[in-house]
Amino acid sequence: MNSSTPIFGLTGGIGSGKSAAAKFFNELGIQYVDADQLAREVVEPDQPALQAIADHFGSALIDEQGQLRRAQLRQIIFADPAAKTWLEQLLHPLIRQLLEQRLALCPPPYGLLVSPLLFETGQDQLTQGVIVVDVSEQTQLTRTQQRDRNSAEQVRAIMQSQLPREQRLQQARWRLTNEGSLADLQSQIQALDKQLRQLINQQTL
């Protein structure tokens, strides 16, 4: 990785607004690498991981276009901890390798690693500090149900697979509260961006 460009982690629970926050940083000239996007890349039709998944779980998980049936796989791994562990052992090293390659390409003043499982997967080790987009668990539940049309039970299962809110906040260096409007979030990000640039300039990270 290119050590000359500091990398900060950007994380938060499902429905917290990580994607919106990343876009606001990007508007300020900050390049980011999205771990979720890389997780999709490693299971594209031409990737060996997709064949491994089909061999392990059955070819019914691949649709007529050769694409992974994500919703079906999600149901399997949330119902079966052993299946979840197997999938993580397959995908996490592949995602980590891609992450390191892409982060090394981030230009100054700094880059962002956007990941919902930043702490859970040890990806925070690739950063100089972590920013958390924080909302209440009720807000997570409401927003995710509205966005993904999932049941409350499904959303709670995803939330339980992620680090508890309090632990995430304890491990983070900076906090963005996203209970209000997008304009409010954008204002917080503009202020934090100035702070980060100052820390980098002063070499006081």
TrEMBL record:
InterPro entries: Depp_CoAkinase (IPR001977), P-loop_NTPase (IPR027417). CDD domains: DPCK (cd02022). ATP binds at G15, S16, G17, K18, S19, A20. Keywords: ATP-binding, Coenzyme A biosynthesis, Cytoplasm, Kinase, Nucleotide-binding, Transferase. It is found in: Cytoplasm. Pfam families: CoaE. Signal peptide: none annotated. Pathway: Cofactor biosynthesis; coenzyme A biosynthesis; CoA from (R)-pantothenate: step 5/5. Its EC number is 2.7.1.24. The keyword Cytoplasm applies. It catalyses: 3'-dephospho-CoA + ATP = ADP + CoA + H(+). One of its GO terms (molecular function) is dephospho-CoA kinase activity. Its main location: cytoplasm. NCBIfam families: dephospho-CoA kinase. PANTHER family: BIFUNCTIONAL COENZYME A SYNTHASE-RELATED (PTHR10695:SF46), DEPHOSPHO-COA KINASE-RELATED (PTHR10695). Belongs to the CoaE family. Catalyzes the phosphorylation of the 3'-hydroxyl group of dephosphocoenzyme A to form coenzyme A. This is Dephospho-CoA kinase. The gene is coaE.
